[in-house]
Amino acid sequence: MGVEANLKKKKQELVDKPLESLSDQEIITLLKDKRANESQVLEFLMDEYRRYLYSIMINKRVRKHDLDSIFVDCFFRFYKNVNKPDFILLKSIKNYLSGVLNNLIKEYFRELMKNRFEELLSALKISSKDNETKRGEQSDCLKQVIEKINQIKSPYREMLLLKSQGYSYKEMVPFFFDKNGERYQEHVIRQYVFRARRELHKKLGGLKCIGDFFND
């Protein structure tokens, strides 16, 4: 039997084996083999690691109604990466999935933070317009606040805005990651909010409408 025929035979043997009897490397080989039932393999993996991956998301405070979509996205990205020509499984599938999931969670909170910041900023602008005909002075003040907040660098700006909307330092933890992908701790967020307040005070110190940005 030639090398190519022998290889073909071994791949067919993998296809015929029960999934639970396969090693992680064999499962990766199977996912790359177009003769295999990819959906069946992925369903097996999803059942195998569902509890583990959900526990990661819950511990990292992913909202309940977003759990399922992130879980599915995790396997979609996993499958997409596995089928790249240069893909190599360095450790275990479990380890690789947790890495993919952690990246998705970071992206999820960044997007959540971005949307929340835009909503709050939009609310400030609407408030400014609503007050335009009633209290011209307050309207001008809010316009200046919006302008100066946008000048504060990220993540100080977003932390300050969330704090002004009543978020506790603990509630803000899930939203912010440093350059290494680690979450900012409460005491660091507190320091950043203090710095942002100090910067905003320098820019707008004499204005009366900025009280919410300085209340703990």
Outline the structure in words.
- By secondary structure, this protein is mainly α.
- The chain contains nine helices and no strands.
- Helix 3 crosses helix 5.
- The longest helix is centred in the middle third of the chain and has 38 residues.
- The chain is elongated.
- The mean pLDDT is 78.
Q: Could you tell me the mean pLDDT?
A: 78
Instruction: Tally the helices.
Output: 9
Strand content: under 5%
Shape designation: elongated
Helix content: 55-70%
Largest sheet geometry = none
Rg computed from alpha carbons, rounded to a whole number of angstroms: 25 Å
Name the helix and strand elements from N-terminus to C-terminus, one letter apiece.
HHHHHHHHH
The poorly predicted ranges are none
Structural class: mainly alpha
Tell me the total number of β-strands. Answer: 0
Q: Kindly, what is the distance between the CA atoms of the first and last residues, rounded to a whole number of angstroms?
A: 77 Å
Q: Which key phrases capture this entry?
A:
single chain, 216 residues, mainly alpha, elongated
Summed up:
By secondary structure, this protein is mainly alpha-helical. The chain has 9 helices and no strands.
Give the helices and strands, then pairings.
Blueprint: H1 3-16, H2 24-32, H3 38-59, H4 67-82, H5 93-130, H6 136-149, H7 156-164, H8 169-172, H9 186-204
Helix pairs in contact: 3-4, 3-5, 4-5, 5-6, 7-9
